[in-house]
Amino acid sequence: MDALIIITIIAFWFCFVLCMKHLWSFLQGKRSVLDHVANVTHVDPFEKRQKKKNRRASVFQQVTKYADDFSELGQRINFFSENHSVKEWLRKSGNPLQLTVERFQGLKIFLFIAGFIIGVLAVIIGLPFSQYMLVFAPILGYFIPIILVRKEAKKRQNLIRKDLPDFLDTVSTSVQAGVSLDHALREVIRYFDGPIREEFSRFNQEIDLGVPREKAYRELLNRNDNPEFQSLIKGLIQGLNLGIPIAKTFRIQADDMRQIREEQVKEQAAKASPKVTLVTTFLIAPVSILMIAGLMIMNMLMGDNSIFSNF
Q1: pLDDT on residue 303
Q2: DSSP-assigned states of every residue in 280-292
Q3: In Å, how far are 76, 133, 168, 198, 211 from 214, measured between CA atoms?
Q4: Which residue ranges does the record assign to the Type II secretion system protein GspF domain (predicted)?
């Protein structure tokens, strides 16, 4: 009977691993087919992802519509989340879930209450550490929206920093070839993805609607606090006012950003060395010494020349 149980467990895990392998192969094949269809039919995958994000945002709004009832209370209880700070976080994160400041403030109170209810249920059921859940679950629910939005804002700014040098080089080459700046931006952003495309697409839309160019530049500054991006937009505003060639501005900015990125990599490498030394000194070295000492003690006690062999 025991042998049958063991064989059944082994067969189950074998079938499970086999199913996972075939599922992974199916997903990879599906992805390659979709990419091929997109290339043949000239479908922009960025637009498909945008539609998917919009659907996700609409579903999220339906789920969190009850958070609007707590918006006034959330604006009063604004620890670590004043209205102007929340507005800035949402703007710099791109607001993928299309939250308003009022709904955000209500959402943190809603999750606070939900965390408290979960803690009470844990106490009633008698789950382990339920008394700690009663305290920490509401606090966690309150801070989850704040942490996630700030993390998304930081991630978005880092993506802009990563793609900006290549973007500037491509636009500079197009402008030097005689293409106007607006046309170059419209064509170049088609080959980029992520926040940098979103920002300049919105910039082009504002220009099409008749917004003055300098005001559109100022809006780009307000939506992003990335130092390299800020330097670029300020350089474009200065070039617009002084008549400096745009292509030269883009080329200089791209070279400066690559140099800054190189210095940042060197700085991160220099900061990593002490951390590696600490890990080696306080973790790896003691464990190695304990392993060697343990082997020596085991050899002394149970080896051929152990101390008990003479008795």
Answers
A1: 63
A2: IIIIIHHHHHHHH
A3: 37, 52, 19, 18, 8
A4: 167-292
Of 136-150, 163-177, 192-206, 266-280, the one with minimum mean pLDDT is 266-280
Note the residue count of the chain.
311
Burial classification of residue 147, based on how many CB atoms lie within 10 Å of its CB (0-12 exposed, 13-18 middle, 19 or more buried): exposed
| pLDDT tens for each residue of 27-44 | 888 777 776 666 666 555
Highest mean pLDDT among 6-20, 29-43, 291-305: 6-20
Which residue in this structure is represented by tokens 């094949």?
29
With a cut of 60, say whether residue 304 has pLDDT above it: yes
Q: 99 — alpha (psi -120 to 50), left (phi > 0) or beta?
A: beta
Give the residue from 205, 174, 203 showing the smallest Cα distance to 188.
Answer: 174
The DSSP element (H or E) to which 265 belongs, if any, is: helix 246-279
Residue 228 makes CB contacts below 8 A (sequence gap 6+) with 160, 161, 164, 253, 256, 257, 260
Residues 6+ apart with CB under 8 A from 46: 193, 197
d(C-alpha 204, C-alpha 51), whole Å: 20
Nearest-angstrom CA–CA distance, 189 and 170: 10
